[in-house]
Specification:
Oligomer: single chain
Number of strands: 6
Order of helices and strands: EHEHEHHEEEHH
CATH class: Alpha Beta
Number of helices: 6
CATH topology: Maf protein
Helix content: 25-40%
Structural class: alpha/beta
Strand content: 15-25%
Distance between the termini: 23 Å
Bound molecules: inosine 5'-triphosphate
Shape: globular
Strand order of the largest sheet: 2-1-3-4-5-6
């Protein structure tokens, strides 16, 4: 666990996640608002639900209960139109099982390749009531995997605002210009810096 005393003076936000890539993206965005991000590696529960907001809310409640700190968590998923929103809230499981190659197989010969990533940040503290912040990015599923950066489905997702490159062909800073997570983080950071 990161030691709080090692942070410079100023605002700190505690992020419970097991995903180091998400942490890296969050650290860059929150730094724009002069907020330091502390990674808390707490095993928060992750319920199954059709709605990622409900998943994020349950995780943050559980994490605050365990740590007695103000905490944020983030839940995200890839929603593919031609697959009726699959894998959506099951993105983590689907990534671990069939992966990007499995998604490309399901999308073989599918012309309509529209998809979006949706991110929900849930913040809660022992004193504050729970709040959620959303971000979405539209794009398309590529025909093949491209790029080595990022994580998860990044090699097969091309955002509409930069349609020639996948997220995995971008640096963290570039992905943060477009991504679902960066949009949710910016909304969170604006509220956080005006409240604490
Ligand atoms: P937590 O510990 O924070 O829950 P996680 O990796 O389990 O980390 P999620 O449940 O939020 O994260 O994400 C589900 C999956 O969706 C994740 O494992 C990726 O495969 C995919 N995903 C989410 N955001 C992504 C992004 O920005 N780029 C690529 N894939 C992403």
């Amino acid at each position: 666990m990161t030691r709080v005393s090692s942070f410079p003076k100023g605002r700190v936000a505690f992020f419970v996640t097991g995903n180091i890539h998400k942490f890296k993206e969050a650290r860059h965005v929150l730094a724009e608002y002069k907020v330091a991000t502390a990674l808390l590696r707490v095993k928060a529960s992750e319920i199954q639900d059709d709605d990622i907001e409900n998943i994020a809310k349950a995780s943050v409640r559980d994490a605050v209960e365990r740590c007695r700190l103000p905490i944020f968590v983030e839940d995200a998923g890839l929603f593919i139109d031609a697959l009726n929103g699959f894998p959506g809230p099951y993105s983590s499981y689907v990534y671990r099982t069939i992966g990007t190659k499995g998604i490309l197989k399901l999308m073989k010969e599918v012309e309509k390749r529209d998809a979006y990533f949706h991110s929900v940040i849930a913040f809660c503290s022992p004193k504050e009531s729970l709040r959620c912040f959303h971000g979405k990015v539209k794009g398309k599923i590529s025909q093949e995997e491209r790029g080595n950066s990022g994580f998860g489905f990044d090699p097969i997702f091309k955002p509409s605002d930069s349609p020639n490159r996948t997220f995995a062909e971008m640096t963290t800073e570039e992905k943060n210009k477009f991504s679902h997570r960066a949009q949710a983080l910016r909304k969170f950071a604006e509220w956080y810096t005006s409240t604490f």
